[in-house]
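User: Could you go from structure to sequence for me? I need the amino acid at each position, not a summary. Structure tokens:
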């Protein structure tokens, strides 16, 4: 059954009431912080939104990612079931780029050096122009296996 209790106060006042009544035994982690530093603007459900447009978030990595994907046109598959959180090729590229921008003043030189550093690690890049010509895709050397190349589509359907 649905409740309209969310309209009767803030989350803080409702949790405070539950603590006093004994319905909750432990304070939530955020409770002491909100008690010490209450919000300046009350957090009611019917509060009018703050006027003006929200600020756009800016991350310098986004510009590098944009340039990376425009030049190389590759979106690497990610397995969300793996818990190891292995960095993508783009993430590794950004780490190298960050390191080289500290050394170099020119971003284009840092971009080229980052590409070279990943090529030394075994990543084969191809640009959008190479993709149109039919040159094989961006693949990490450690991720390729010969067994994948040996299979034919006819073999997939055989038991």
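Assistant: Here is the amino acid at each position, in order:
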């Amino acid at each position: 059954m649905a409740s309209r209790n969310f309209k009767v106060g803030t989350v803080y006042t409702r949790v405070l009431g539950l603590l006093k009544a004994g319905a909750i035994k432990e304070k939530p982690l955020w409770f002491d912080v909100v008690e010490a530093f209450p919000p300046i603007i009350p957090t009611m459900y019917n509060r009018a939104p703050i006027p003006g447009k929200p600020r756009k978030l800016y991350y310098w990595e986004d510009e590098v990612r944009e340039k990376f994907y425009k030049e190389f046109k590759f979106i690497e598959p990610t397995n969300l079931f793996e818990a190891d959180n292995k960095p993508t090729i783009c993430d590794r590229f950004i780490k190298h780029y960050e390191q080289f921008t500290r050394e170099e003043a020119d971003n284009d030189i840092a971009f080229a050096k980052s590409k070279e550093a990943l090529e030394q690690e075994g990543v084969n890049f191809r640009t959008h122009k190479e993709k149109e010509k039919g040159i094989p895709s961006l693949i990490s050397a450690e991720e390729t296996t010969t067994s994948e190349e040996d299979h034919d589509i006819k073999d997939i359907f055989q038991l």
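One structural detail worth keeping in mind: The longest helix spans residues 89-103.
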